[in-house]
Every structure is written in C-alpha cells, then in structure tokens.
C-alpha cells in the first residue's frame, strides 16, 4: 500500500512537464491541451493542485491525471506515479521492474543480462566467460533481485550514454533555433526538437523507474520552452553556473561522459553544488573549492566503481 495523501501532493504541473504537456499561466491557473483540440480546455488550479478538462468534463488530483494521460486504471496510475517519483510502499521498497519493451527503449536487452556485456576473450579464458554466462545469464529483472549493484551499474553504463547522446542533439538544435529568424525552417526544426524532448523525457522516466535506490536522473529531463530562454542551457548539474560562481572560487574536473554521470550523481547525493556541461566526448564539472576534499574522495570511489563496471561488461 502507498500513502495516497503523499501521492496526491505531487504537483499536477510537474506531471504535465514529465509528459510533455505545454502549459501557459493565466492568473492562478495553467492552461494547455491533453487532447487533439483547437482551443486549450485543460487547466490546473495552482492553489488547489487540481486539474480540469472542460472539453470532456473530467478532472481530479494527480493520480487521476496519470489515469487520463495514460488511459490506465486507478490502481495502475497509483503504481505508475509512485514509480515516477521514487515513492516506496509502506510495506517496504519495491523493485520497479520494466517490461521487456521498456528495457529495450533504454538500450537494455532484457532476456539475458549477459547480452549487454562486452566479453573480451582476448583478456579472459573461455572457461571464465562460461562461468560468468552461467552466473549472470538471467533476465535483467532477476539480476536486479540477485545482484542489485551489477544491475544498477549496467543501467548507468548503457542507458545514460544513450540519453546524453539525445541531449547533445537536442541542445545543438536549441542553439540553432535561437539563431533562426521566424521562417518555415525554424518551425520544422522546432517540431523535430520537441519530438526529441519527448524521447529524452520518456527515457529519463523509464531509467528512473528501473534504477534501484536513490538517484538524481531527473536532472537530465529537458523542457523546450524553458531551454529556449535559458542562458545556462545544457547544464546537467544541480546548480546554475552563475549562481555557483557567486559563491566563491571554483574548481573544475574534466571527465569522460560515462564516468562524469556517476560522479555528478554521487556529488548530488552528498549535497554538493555542481554545474556540468558537455564538452565533446567529455563533461566539464564545476564545483566550489571548499568541496575539493570531498570531491576527490568521491572521484576515487567513482573511478573504482567504474572500473568494476568495465570488468563486468568485459566478462
């Protein structure tokens, strides 16, 4: 059972953002479309955190909104919103296993975990490889239950780079759109970019559901309207770079993308303010000089974990 009071406190506005629903504020309400219609009839009352669709006379709380957006039952909507926001049942922590199709969406072959490993027979004997196949040659849902650390590391090493690649494409398009004057080309480019926005946020939501334990994957979500106006565009850290710079002298760390994703997640979990931007195949991470000692310890730990991940992939 879930704490329903906690679930209905989730902002309807945030749910819409996750599902790519564009909203405009008018007074104390937000307006937009969740159906194919010419005039906005969907509205959120910001004071009550309730939504209404005046076009088909429906409405309700955040759970009902998930029901409406996905066309699922109330029970399924409760499970879905709990998964999206990392809320555990009162009986304990549940493993949010994806369907096979959903695993494939984030680049994971689900039937056998070993299908995701890059086994190098130049480094390992056939006997050793067979032993690994026997140990890890199970469905990824079973891998999550039996070897949760290996499971999480597999997701981080395969699914995150896919999302980062889409984000690179997305932000390059955002910068291009800013250069265009109003024209047909800009309209088409905007349409492609909005489709990429949906793809990114869909994959982020699936990865967040699949990962075990606390994570900061939400920071990888994008918002087309906000990103067009944002001068800090592309920041995958938890703090605006200009705000971070005001706090004092900064230190910088340049890491390859796969390693940087782990690093940023660990820094975020430790409450360290960080700004990070993609730079070709690397990520430039900025943080306060006051956190240097903490960051060095985290970096050492992350490098060790990353080494273990590479070993697993090579098996």
Describe what this molecule looks like in 3D.
The mean pLDDT is about 85. The chain has about 325 residues and is an alpha+beta fold. The strands form two sheets. A five-stranded antiparallel beta sheet has the order 1-2-3-4-5, covered by helices on one side. Strands 6-8-7 form a three-stranded antiparallel beta sheet. The chain is built from 13 helices and eight strands. The two termini are about 40 Å apart. It has helices at about 5-10, 10-20, 60-70, 75-85, 100-105, 125-135, 140-145, 150-180, 185-210, 225-230, 240-245, 255-270, 290-315; strands at about 25, 30, 40-45, 50-55, 60, 250-255, 275-280, 280-290.
Give the arrangement of secondary structure elements.
Layout: H1 4-8, H2 12-18, E1 23-26, E2 29-32, E3 42-45, E4 50-53, E5 58-60, H3 62-70, H4 74-84, H5 100-105, H6 126-136, H7 140-146, H8 148-179, H9 184-210, H10 224-229, H11 241-246, E6 250-256, H12 257-269, E7 274-279, E8 282-288, H13 292-314
Antiparallel strand pairs: 1-2, 2-3, 3-4, 4-5, 6-8, 7-8
């Amino acid at each position: 059972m879930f704490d329903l009071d906690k679930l209905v406190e989730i902002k309807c506005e945030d749910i819409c953002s996750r599902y790519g629903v564009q909203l405009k504020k008018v007074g104390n309400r937000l307006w937009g479309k969740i159906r194919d219609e010419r005039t906005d009839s969907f509205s959120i009352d910001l004071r009550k955190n309730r939504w209404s669709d005046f076009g088909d006379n429906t409405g309700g709380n955040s759970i009902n909104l998930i029901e409406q957006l996905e066309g699922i039952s109330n029970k399924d909507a409760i499970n879905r919103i709990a998964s999206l926001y990392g809320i555990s049942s009162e009986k304990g922590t549940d493993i949010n296993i994806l369907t096979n199709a959903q695993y494939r969406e984030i680049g994971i072959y689900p039937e056998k975990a070993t299908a995701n490993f890059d086994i190098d027979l130049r480094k390992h004997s056939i006997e050793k490889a067979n032993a690994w196949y026997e140990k890890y040659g199970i469905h990824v849902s079973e891998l999550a239950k039996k070897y949760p650390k290996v499971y999480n590391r597999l997701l981080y090493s395969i699914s995150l780079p896919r999302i980062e690649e889409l984000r690179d494409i997305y932000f390059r398009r955002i910068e291009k759109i800013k250069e265009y004057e109003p024209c047909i080309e800009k309209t088409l480019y905007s349409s492609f970019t909005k489709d990429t926005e949906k793809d990114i946020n869909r994959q982020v939501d699936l990865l967040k559901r699949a990962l075990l334990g606390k994570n900061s994957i939400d920071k990888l979500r994008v918002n087309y309207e906000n990103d067009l106006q944002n001068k800090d565009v592309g920041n995958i850290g938890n703090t605006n770079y200009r705000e971070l710079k005001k706090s004092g002298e900064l230190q910088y760390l340049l890491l390859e993308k796969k390693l940087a994703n782990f690093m940023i997640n660990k820094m975020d979990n430790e409450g360290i303010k960080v700004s990070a931007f993609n730079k070709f195949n690397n990520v430039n991470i900025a943080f306060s000089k006051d956190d240097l000692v903490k960051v060095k310890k985290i970096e050492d730990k992350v490098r060790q974990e990353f080494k273990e991940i590479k070993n697993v992939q090579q098996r």
